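Bit of a strange request maybe. I'm writing a small parser for structure token strings and I need a real example to test against, not something I typed by hand. Could someone generate the tokens for this chain?
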Amino acid sequence: MKSAAAILASSFVTLSLLVAPAVAQETVPTSQGQIDLTFAPLVKAAAPAVVNIYTRTVVKERQVASPFFDDPFFRQFFGDQFKSGQPKERVQGSLGSGVILRPDGLIVTNNHVINGADQIRVVLNDKREFPAKVVAAEERLDLALLRVDTKGAVLPTLSLRDSDDLDVGDLVLAIGNPFGVGQTVTSGIVSGVARTNTGIGDFGYFIQTDAAINPGNSGGALISTDGKLIGIPTAIFSKTGGSVGIGFAIPSNMVAAVVKAEGDGGKLVRPWIGAAGEEVTNDIAQSLGLPHPGGVVVQQLYPDGPAEQAGLKPGDIVVGVNGRTVDDPEGLRFRLATLPVGEQAKLNILRKGASVDLSIDLVAPPEKPTNEVLLAGRQPLSGALIINLSPASADELNISAWDGVAIAKLKRNSIADRVGFEAGDIIVKVNDRDIKSAADLADIMSNTPAPWSIAVNRGGKVKTFDLD
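Reply from user aminoacidic:
Good idea to test on real output. This should exercise your parser:
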């Protein structure tokens, strides 16, 4: 289970200091039926489809040996049998949860549960065990699909519910294997829907719940009171690693999109419309004369892209997709990602205060040659893999730009990594020279001596590195 730094602690205040005493209006149960109300039948139906996932990963580590083992005099007597730095293998285990979606053995879980695992085993509620193989892994969505060979056995399943039908206050149950204690059920309510800007990954749009979620619940089930899957618990806010009542689940509509695209060996392609913009904040709303903040104000359009062809214009405010509210760019990306390429969507926009609907084609982001170059040598960008941007590569890097030169990856502990460059940085200038291509940047860095002044666009803001 991932965790993030929590919010500042609040002080406890005695309630009697804040409100006057009041007579509570309480009643006792009036029938046996009211006394016997329970979630047990719901849990009995849903729990068999929630599984435990155990992974094993072989990690190679270098042993820290005595400096004497590298001494020539010492090695004259003992040879290289104690040579320092010899790699040692260590088996690292972890656990999580998953949900069976198809009776033939298709299981959904979080990508971080199985990422890098050499072996994956699935244990059912009835103690049956199966080895599992990865069918699909979506790192940005933190979702993965597994398949087990049931050898003809039909497994219990959970059906998906439309997560857009959820309301704050709805009752939910979380089923998983927290801390490895065994399958556990907790209850709560939906505390929030369409949560973005949580700092969890680069593609975040979550259901928030106060149902207790702990390490090991990752990839398990968040179910509604009709016994259907509405979310996959994936992260919590916590100071200690334990539940404090702020948990987040990936909505079932995103799960449905991944299963539809990749459940039988395909690949999920997120629709691209060729438009970029920023969230309509309170300040922006006031400057535009809007009654309240919310939506995405369009700033850029890809020439002759789907958005421009549909009639979208800079300054338009996207407030919905197919009638579903959009509050910010993350919400717009989520709404589009749940729709299939090749179809049309209806963009709900505000244009000069008037409501307008535009039909837009959903297409795959165009590919262009990226010309990958791994920079090396004694210069600040050494260890950075740079590429020419295209709509497709920009989508993968979560960049709101369609051309330029960007860092796609960084070698760990490389010079570029230690200097502070990041994947997704767009290299704008080196010593006031505009960067036009990856080959151009490679040539400049190979032939430019110190000092260096490197300007990058990071998240829409220009940051300059002045280096000797």
